[in-house]
C-alpha cells in the first residue's frame, strides 16, 4: 500500500496563513519589546541606584523570574482559552502596565523609593514594580503561540523550536536596537510609551483575527 505524502508543515497548522503570520510577527515583536524593555528598565533604575553589579543582578533576576512565571502561567491559561482573544488580553494588559510605568517615571518611582528603608530593599522593590508584572504578562504569550499554531502533536518540536528561535531573534534585536538606537535618540519614557502603544495596536489585530477565525482559533 502506498502512503500518501505528508502535507507540508504550513498546511498542517491549526490556523490559516494570515493568522499564522500574525502569530509569527507577534512572537518576533513581543520578543523585541520584552528585552527592549529590560534595557529601558535599566535606564530607569540605574540613575537611582547606580549601574553596578547589584543593580544589574537585580534587574536580570527579576526579568528572568517574571518570564519564568509568565511561561508557567501562560501554559495553563493557553490550554483553557486557546484563542486570539487571549492574545489580545495579554497585549492589552502589557500595554496598560507600560503606560503605568510611563506615568510612574514622572516622579512616582522616586516617591516610592523615599518610603522604603534600606538601599537594597528599595532596589529590589523598584525593580519588581518596574519589571516583574509586564514580563509575566509578556511571557504568557510564548506557550500561547505554540497552542495557537499546533494541530498535530507530531509537529510540536518543530513548531515550538521555531517559535522560540524567532522569539530569541526578537530578543536580540530588542536589546541592540533599543540600546544603540532608541535610547540615545528618543529616551526611555518615549520608548516605554511607544512599546505600550504598539502593544495596544497589535491587541486590536488579535481581536480582528479572533473575529475572522472564531473563538477556538
Automatic annotation (TrEMBL):
The chain crosses the membrane at residues 12-33, 53-77, 84-104, 124-150, 162-184, 190-213. It comes from the Bacteria. Keywords: Membrane, Transmembrane, Transmembrane helix. This is Spermidine synthase. The lineage of its organism: Bacteria, Pseudomonadati, Pseudomonadota, Alphaproteobacteria, Hyphomicrobiales.
